Amino acid sequence: MSLVFILFIFLLSQFASAAPPVIEKQQNIVIPVINSANQQDTISRNGLSAIFKMRLLRWNDGSAVTVFVLNDDDPLHKQFCKQILNVFPHQMRRNWDKLVFSGSGQAPILVESKEEMIEKIEKTPGSVGYLNLSDLTNGIKRLDIK
Q1: Which of 100, 34, 104, 96 is nearest to 64 (CA)?
Q2: pTM: predicted TM-score of the whole model, two decimal places
Q3: DSSP 8-state class, residue 106
Q4: Residue 94: which H helix or E strand, with range?
Q5: Is residue 100 within 8 Å of residue 107, measured between CB atoms?
Q6: Cα(86)–Cα(42) distance, rounded to whole angstroms?
Q7: Chain segment 77-122, per-residue pLDDT in tens
Q8: 30, 131 Cβ separation under 8 angstroms
């Protein structure tokens, strides 16, 4: 009987050590974020998609939206497009290029790094972007999707 108990404990410890810590999981969760002065806390998935497709240019209070994105090849950008917006990065790029080349709109503002994304969103009222959950700062808050 004690051999079965020891085997059970051994197997349990193997499974427990295989699970990543909660902190590690949070570092990989991508979320939409906004400047902390923005009064809006939630948005529909369609509304968020319209913002990043540069079709929705104003927040609910009428203030202008400023969109910041990372390079198309950045892993965080790819994760945001696929997991949150349900599109591939090249589809977003094609949409932005179409707006620019037709003269009917502008592309979002491209930032070079996650650190620059943080800096720009903290300093720009009405701004929106995306970060890992673990990267939230005092000047940035999560935009919840309804």
Answers
A1: 34
A2: 0.81
A3: -
A4: helix 89-102
A5: yes
A6: 18
A7: 999 999 999 999 999 999 999 999 999 999 999 999 999 999 999 9
A8: yes
